[in-house]
Design a protein that fits this description.
The protein is of the alpha/beta class and about 575 residues long. Strand 2, helix 4 and strand 3 form a beta-alpha-beta unit. The protein binds one RNA strand of 75 nucleotides through helix 6, strand 6, helix 8, helix 13 and strand 19.
Length: about 575
RNA sequence: UGGGAUGUAGCCAAGCGGUAAGGCACGGGACUUUGACUCCCGCAUUCGCAGGUUCAAAUCCUGCCAUCCCAGCCA
């Protein structure tokens, strides 16, 4: 499994090398957007970073699992480096020890590698630079651009003002720098309890931008950090730390989502006032949102913790580990992100587009197989009881080089229950008394009737085969509209199949005023215990999954499949234009 | 008169003064040993609204409207 995943990763074009610029997506779409344009200017002739190579970073906080929204950021961060021939770092933004955990670090790395991106030796933690940050904090104090404040959290909140009213200055705002320096050093030495002091930047309490009203840049937290242990009891805040991290890593462009637009003036303030080795620039883009699901970490966590789904990798979730388990390919996800484009318009993308990207990928590559999800017996009444024959079919029709497998055929078969109707509506060209259909790759048969139980439920469909149509070839001049998938009852293998639908019944559960419990789709997962598949799927493990013909794309559930129990997840349905009259 | 941003089709999205790309979705047709795939065709007389500038405006100007983000010692 792991090897196959690595193989796939290696096959993916566009693993970041930092050498060859790439101007198109690997599916041939042109990549161009406002951030790329801006970076080209910054780096180009006359630009502020003329001559430099682009250097980005993906900076998750290790406090949860990555989801498809992060995939967009990853594609932008790593993709920008790829497109422009630069580098992209992976950085754990771990400036708040109370929220973070090493376990998330591993999961995040796995997900990014799975997507096919590589940070090579450039894996960092914000905490790698705590010493430098401390140095720069003292620099601000020396420049009288920061001061140690004694306001309580409540006092800070009250004096900050409101959206429409300016704040009032802290009584400690003009504390002599010597005094601030002394207290700050003692803060670091651990002399004070949590909350006793903070270090604040001295900017502008009357600014319309609340982020500039003397933001706290260091707080005391006697908390063990997953990287630095007990080395520190003061920790820097995001707005102070981020530009320093970027500069220390050599990042030229700090790409982030729209909600940080308000923070850019603060980012720029830090860049202007600290003696950083380089001067990174920040640009913002709109997050990716998808309908019929939730993307907020809080909601995802609630679903998991309340047991409404079976863990972070429940295939109904939009997390990358869930999508992986569901059968989504890295290629499909990347393609989806790239084709959605990059803009500043807050958008909600249709889940159908994601599904389309998956189908487009799998259609080309996933082996075909037959499976019967809701079986009913089909008896070929003119086929000898003791006879069996085999047919050989391509794994990918028309591409014998992709491998072949055999099907066995006998008198007793299994077909899909909804492929027979005793009294069908118009334009139904499957089995009904008197009608002819093709059993794919086998024979053309004519339905002669059915057998029902006492309740009137069909328990067996009867048909006669035409021996002259071996292989499914119609007689000269005859046209057979319907082709069905089928299984030989004698060799078919039983499996559990899980069908997935949207987790929520409304497009935007995040915006809905109702409690999200009411919005959950009761049919988000349908488990079929009595499904049957071709026997070779017992041993075969395609990392792409399979197309179960006429049904959709399915993949072994890598967690629940055991040597004696097959479990399949439906990744996505096939398109279906059948409309009963 | 708090600050910042955004409005192009049902959903994304190009467009950057010369007369509305593309994709998804949807509808119709052809083909078909998957009602799949593929291939055709259709799908904004109009770019949030109203004025103005111009021979010419989605693009420039003015005003208005709508939506989103910001008041953590979170990121």
């Amino acid at each position: 499994m792991k090897e196959k995943r690595e193989q796939e990763t290696k096959r993916l074009p566009g693993v970041v090398t930092g050498i060859t610029p790439r101007e198109e997506t690997f599916t041939g779409n042109k990549i161009s957007h406002f951030i790329l344009d801006a970076i080209r200017q910054d780096l180009g002739p006359g630009g502020p970073m003329e001559g430099r190579k682009v250097h980005t970073r993906f900076p998750p906080e290790p406090n949860g699992f990555l989801h498809i929204g992060h995939a967009k950021a990853i594609v932008i961060d790593f993709g920008t480096a790829e497109i422009l021939g630069g580098l992209c770092n992976l950085r754990m933004d771990d400036t708040n020890p109370v929220k973070e955990d090493e376990a998330y670090v591993r999961a995040i790395k796995e997900d990014i590698h799975w997507l096919g991106y590589d940070w090579e030796d450039r894996f960092y933690h914000a905490s790698d630079f705590f010493e430098e940050m401390y140095f720069f904090a003292e620099e601000l104090i020396e420049k009288e651009l920061a001061f140690v404040c004694e306001q309580t959290p409540e006092e800070v909140r009250e004096s900050r003002g409101t959206l429409t009213k300016p704040g009032t200055e802290s009584p400690w705002r003009y504390r002599p720098k010597e005094e601030s320096l002394d207290i700050f050093r003692r803060m670091r030495a651990g002399e004070f309890p949590d909350g006793r002091y903070t270090l604040r930047a001295r900017i502008d309490m009357a600014s319309g931008n609340i982020n500039l009203r003397d933001p706290v840049i260091y707080r005391i937290q006697h908390e063990s950090h997953h990287q630095t242990g007990d080395d520190w009891c003061i920790y820097p805040m995001y707005d102070f730390a981020h530009p320093i991290e970027d500069a220390m890593e050599g990042v030229t462009h700090s790409l982030c989502s729209l909600e940080f637009e308000d923070h850019r003036p603060l980012f720029d303030w830090m860049v202007a006032n600290l003696s950083l080795p380089t001067k990174p620039k920040q640009y913002e883009f709109a997050r990716l949102d998808i309908n019929y699901t939730v993307m907020s970490k809080r909601k995802l966590r609630a679903l998991v913790e309340e047991g409404l789904v079976d863990g972070w990798d429940d295939p109904r979730l939009p997390t990358l580990s869930a999508l992986r388990r569901r059968g989504y390919t890295p290629r499909a996800i990347r393609d989806f992100c790239e084709r959605n484009g990059v803009s500043k318009v807050p958008s909600m993308v249709d889940i159908k587009f994601l599904e389309h990207c998956l189908r487009e990928d799998l259609n080309l590559r996933a082996p075909r197989a037959m499976a019967v999800l809701d079986p009913v017996k089909l008896t070929i009444t003119n086929y000898p009881e003791d006879q069996t024959e085999t047919f050989t079919v391509d794994n990918l029709p028309g591409q014998p080089e992709a491998g072949r497998h055999t099907l066995s055929f006998s008198r007793h078969l299994l077909i899909e229950r909804d492929d027979f109707m005793e009294d069908p509506p118009g334009r139904y060209y499957r089995l009904f008394p008197g009608n002819q259909v093709r059993l794919r790759a086998a024979y053309i048969i004519r339905c002669t009737g059915c057998v029902k139980d006492e309740e009137g439920r069909v328990i067996e469909v009867l048909a006669e085969y035409d021996p002259e149509t071996r292989g499914g070839t119609a007689r000269e001049g005859e046209k057979i509209r319907g082709t069905l998938h089928w299984l030989d009852q004698a060799t078919a293998v039983q499996a559990e199949v899980r069908l997935y639908n949207n987790l929520f019944t409304v497009e935007a559960p995040d915006d809905d005023e109702r409690d999200y419990h009411e919005l959950l789709n009761p049919d988000s997962r349908i488990t079929l215990e009595n499904a049957w598949v071709e026997p070779w799927l017992q041993e075969d493990r395609s990392h792409l999954g399979y197309q179960f013909m006429r049904l959709g794309y399915f993949i072994h559930d890598h967690k629940d499949t055991t040597p004696d129990r097959l479990v399949f997840n439906r990744s996505v349905k096939l398109r279906d234009s059948y409309r009963p009259e």
